[in-house]
Structures are given as C-alpha cells and as structure tokens.
Amino acid sequence: MDHQNLELIENIRQQFDNTPYPRIPLEQSPKDNSELLYLHNFVTAYYFRNRIVINTEGKVILDAGCGTGYKSLVLALANPGAKIVGIDLSEESVKLAEKRLQYHGVGNAEFYAVKIEDLLSLGLEFDYINADEVLYLLPAPIAGLQAMKSVLAPDGIIRTNLHSSNGRAGVFRAQAVFKTMGLMNGSPGEVEIEIVRETMEALQDEVGLKAFTWNSDRAQNEAWIMANYLLVGDKGCTIPEVFAMLRGADLEFISMVAWHRWELMDLFKDPDDLPPFLAMSLPEASLEERLHLFDLLHPLHRLFDFWCGHPNRTQAFVPVGEWTEAQWREARVHLHPQLRTSQIREDLSNCIDSQTPFEISRYIIVPTLAPVAIESTMAACLLPLWDRPQSVVSLVEQWLQIGSQISVNLESVSDETAFEVVKELLIRLEVFLYVLLEP
C-alpha cells in the first residue's frame, strides 16, 4: 500500500479513536426494534436468496467495522445462538464495543482491532458478514470485498453498502468546501466541527448547499457533522461501479436489502402505459441497468445497501406464486423471528377483539412501499404462528373455526374457499418476508 493510502488509513483510525461512532448510549438496547433486528437477521438474507428457513444457532457472524458495537449488539439479539466477532480499525472503538456487549450480557462475542484487509489472520470462517457504513471509507473497496470473500463460508452472505454519488451529492459538495478550507487535513476534531457549524449558519438559508444539506437541529450533534461534513475517506460511486467492484472481487450481487424501494416501474405514473421506447426497452434491461436508471432518475437513497455472496450458490426454488396445490397442502409456515414477540401478539389479539385491521407493517416497514394491513378475522388465523411453525392446512382449519360464515349469505364456507383465502394471504405476506414458507 502506498504512502498516501497509509496516511489516509491512519487519519481515519485517529478520527474514530477521537470520536468513536456511533455515539449511542451504552445502556440503550435495540431489543424492541423489530425492523432493525429484521434487517440484521441472517434468516432474512438467507431466506431471500434460497427460500429456506435456517437456524442461527451455532452460526459465526462478523461485524466488520463494528465501531462502538451497537450493530454487534443488534446482530447478537437478531441471531440467537450465533457467535459474534467484531473488528475495527480503531482500538478505542473496539474497547467500547466489548464493554457494550458485556453490559448487555452477551457472552458469545469477541472483538479485534484489525483491518478488514487482514481478516485472514483471525483464522475464522463466517456464515454472515455485516460490513455496514465502512466499505466506502476504504482506499480500495475491492480489496475489502476480496478480504471478506476469503473468510466467507461457501453458503455465506455479505451485507454491505456504498455511498451513492447521486444520493449523497450535496454532502460530497460540502466535504469539498471544507477540504478547500483545510478542515479535513489530518483528523478533524471539535475545532473543525465548530467551524463547520459557524460556516453553515452564516450562509443565507436559500444558498443551495445549506438548503439541501443542512439541518440546524441535527447539527447540535457532533457525530452527525463528523459522519457527513468531515468524514475523512468518504466517497461515492454509481451502480455500474458497484457491479464492477463485485465482479472484481468475484462476488455475486443478490439484492438490495430494501428491495421493494428500488422498483423502477414505481417511478412512472402508469407502468402499463409507458412511452413506446420505454415499453420496448425496459423489459429487456438487466438488473444492473434498472438499478442504475432508478438511481439516475430518483436519487432517493444515500446508500447502495445490498447482499452479495459467492457466485452460483443460490439454491433453486419455485416461487410460492407458482406452487402446485400439492405443494401448498404440504407446506410449512414460519412467522419471521422478529415478529414473534409477546407485544406484537398482544397487539394482534387486541385488533381481533376490537375487530380492527392489524397493520403488520408498523413493526417492519422497510420492505414495503405502503402500509400492509390485514382484516382482523383473517389475521386471527395467524395467531398459532406465535407459538411455533404451522402447516398451511392447520392455518386453514384455524380460519374455518374463526370465520365459518360468509357475511353475505351466511352459508358455510367450503374447505376449498378457505384454502384459497389463506393461500392468498400467505402469498401477500411472503412478498415482504413477514411469513416464510417452505414446501
């Protein structure tokens, strides 16, 4: 590694030694944050790729760039029985991460002050790797991807992210301003933070940089300024560059983590009535091209947050919408682990008692574009899933017991009708991975 990159890495290390990130209080727990746990549960990524429900017991999970350990704690709570290993460039951050997990009683965790590029030195293989908000800081992101691939189990999955050049354009302009002012030479600290505040507040409110990037309330938080305006090593990229990096590291793109929020057709007023050129060309576009076009048309996302893994490891499966009746009648239904809480079950029971719709997306909204609500009688058939996985047939029987009459004519509901109604509900919920189905 050349002298310039070595100096950059040292500046990044000093920055996080001086201002460890994230600055989340030691006692704060994510145990009730179903959405955060959903995103960091290996079950979510593995099911999305293979449509198989795995058990996290005994899995080995890496938090690469663990910082002060909050995401390591999230990974521990989201993946019961897994061993958590955290690494970070900053020794001070590692010390805080160890203290955090000890405080919350997580015993099966260990932390090391090592670079991602030196992962092989740990002598471990990982089933799941979480490299959150770190890859874009590396002088050579491909080297970071290659290092993670070298310690990834054959069937393992990496969740990582890179900054979008388009989605973060305003912040990159701000960084250029403060580089020009000399504030990002070395490792910025409290003096530089205060200069940023004074500079931005001195600008008229309609000045573009201030109008599009500044938030006076959030600016009271030093960590927010450091993570945006003074983040040493920060850089962005485009979708084609992301895919080029993955090819360079011999990794396969699986999906964006919030996959429904990257649907290109949702950007058009009427997807069924496109201009002729688009109507002919878009169906032929590759996934890479569609994601790139989304980012160009609507740079909504600060991060390209995605899953990837070894090439050609996806296990063949038939989408549930194409299952035969025999497959449905033999299928098993799992509730996503992050929905199986006593509080959510109590909320469902209250909706059933009051005959009000059960809004399941209020607990995990990230895979949806709009609220997902279930009519209370229908939602009631899901109650047994809070105890254990169920067969589709048993859920149909449950629904027949609850709503055995059709309100229009009060005739008994047939088994065939009940089966179709429950099947359609499960298909709808499986789209968002609220329920996980295995034939």
Give the secondary structure arrangement, pairings included.
Elements lengths: L2 H16 L15 H6 L2 H9 L9 E5 L5 H9 L4 E5 L3 H13 L5 E4 L13 E6 L9 H10 L1 E13 L4 H12 L9 H13 L5 H6 L8 H7 L7 E2 L1 H10 L3 E5 L19 H6 L5 H11 L5 E7 L15 H6 L1 E4 L6 H13 L3 E2 L13 E2 L1 H5 L9 E2 H11 L12 H16 L4 E4 L1
Parallel strand pairs: 1-2, 1-4, 2-3, 4-5, 5-6
Antiparallel strand pairs: 5-8, 7-8, 9-12, 9-13, 10-11
Helix pairs in contact: 17-18
Distance between the termini: 50 Å
Helix content: 40-55%
Discrete helix count: 18
List the quaternary state of the chains.
single chain
Rg from alpha-carbon coordinates: 24 Å
Counting DSSP E segments of at least 2 residues, the number of strands comes to: 13
Question: pLDDT below 50 for ≥5 consecutive residues: which ranges?
Answer: 405-410
- What's the overall geometry? globular
- What is the residue-averaged pLDDT? 94
Give the class from helix and strand content and strand pairing. Answer: alpha/beta
Strand content: 5-15%
Report on the biggest sheet. Answer: 8 strands, mixed
